[in-house]
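Escalated from tier 1: flavin-adenine dinucleotide holo job.
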Amino acid sequence: MKILVCVSNVPDTTTKITFTDNNTQFNTNGVQFILNPYDEIALSRAIELTDGGKVTVTVINVGEVSTEATIRKALAIGATDAVRINAKPHDAWYVAYQIAQYVKANPFDLILTGRESIDYNGSKVAGMLGELLDLPSVSIIKKLDVSESSATVEREIEGGKEILTIPFPFVAGAAEGVAEPKIPNMRGIMSARTKPLIVVEPLEVKTFSEIVSYETLSIRGQVKLVAADDTAKLVELLHTEARVI
Ligand SMILES: Cc1cc2nc3c(=O)[nH]c(=O)nc-3n(C[C@H](O)[C@H](O)[C@H](O)COP(=O)(O)OP(=O)(O)OC[C@H]3O[C@@H](n4cnc5c(N)ncnc54)[C@H](O)[C@@H]3O)c2cc1C
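Tier 2 regenerated the structure:
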């Protein structure tokens, strides 16, 4: 079985977000980039499925050369090899299109993404990949087990669980619960240096989105605490100060 795990290179969650160029560009100066945590979960499960060499796990990233540290981390965690599509990812459509074209030429049985990237939080790439590749696509899976020709995935739904059996090939977006993220060991870090990382040039594709402007959240006002049994005061404040009722 051949598994492809899509990995994105995202700012560390502690990053202080600022913008440049009249608030149209994210300021990457001094920003520490990491492997998207949900992709780490997807990758960890894929590696768990590598049964005595019968399964290969390829990681793919659409990004510039600066993302190679993140790709090497994925190789250190245990991926077999890696592909970098050499482009600045413009938006989810661009990312999905480039990956889909690669997969059309190099088919995989299972394509895993994270449930979302923690930078733009679009949750779009997996669905778009399914559409572009004409494959089933399932979002926010919490469990993944595989058999010879199909997989069983579990999703949380309102008030319960949904269990689906899906024939290969398909696309799935992994969330918490699919696996515990693996930490690379020294052997993994050493071997990652020599594992294959191929660089593919992107294809021309029409872009549909443009950043008009970014805005950070305004600083929250002071909080007023009301005693739990003082409903009258709460109602009064909601009416006279918050003006929501
Ligand atoms: C308008 C716009 C402008 C952007 N401009 C830039 C830019 O200038 N420079 C820049 O570096 N980024 C840029 N990005 C971010 C980059 O394009 C994102 O990777 C892409 O938009 C996907 O984000 P998403 O939140 O929709 O992904 P989601 O759909 O939330 O991601 C789900 C999963 O898709 C996979 N995935 C996402 N991105 C990638 C990737 N790049 N390679 C491989 N797999 C991936 C991962 O498995 C991820 O968990 C931009 C994004 C937007 C929306």
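The longest helix spans residues 92-105.
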